[in-house]
Amino acid sequence: MTTPTNTNSEKSRDFSKFIKGxxxxxxxxxxxxxxxxxxxxxxxVITVTLATVAIWAIDSILGYGLNLIxx
Length: 71
Hints:
Blueprint: H1 8-28, H2 34-70
Main location: membrane
Pfam families: SecE
Membrane topology: Single-pass membrane protein
């Protein structure tokens, strides 16, 4: 039993249909304006910075505690 294969024209038609669908979906996206983008970026940078400091602090405290135990 053989499986049917797509010809080049069918593949190109499928790809063209896919690209049209992608363009259609991108038009539906609610893109942020410059102010929203800036605000969201600031929130992300602050959140990442706070998470980094928290992880560093926990790591330092645990490292100090383990050094006391090991000595």
